[in-house]
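R.M. (postdoc): so does anyone remember the format we settled on? I'll just put the structure tokens first.
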């Protein structure tokens, strides 16, 4: 059986690594264009801007970010349910 204190240390190390990765992803930006539309998104799936014909459309950016947030919350809830069923949550 593995040492519980070592497992706790490993878990803390993994959390620290995950936090570092999160910070790095927040700094990344990806830009894509399709026809008249240009989208800029971060590595954490946060929409920075949506432009149509070079004009920023903040309402569309906010709506897409809200949809992404709802989707992520639903996915997190499902994963939490699975974790509980497996006895690891």
């Amino acid at each position: 059986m593995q040492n519980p204190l070592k497992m706790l240390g490993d878990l803390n190390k993994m959390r620290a690594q995950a936090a570092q990765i999160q910070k790095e992803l927040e700094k990344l930006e990806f830009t894509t264009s399709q026809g008249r539309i240009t989208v800029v998104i971060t590595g954490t799936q946060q929409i920075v801007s949506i432009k149509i014909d070079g004009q920023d459309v903040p309402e569309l950016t906010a709506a897409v970010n809200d949809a992404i947030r709802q989707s992520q919350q639903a996915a997190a809830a499902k994963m939490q349910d699975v974790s509980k069923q497996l006895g690891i949550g």
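R.M.: ...and that's the designed sequence above, right after the tokens. Also worth knowing: The CA atoms of residues 33 and 55 lie 13 Å apart. The chain is about 60% helix and 20% strand.
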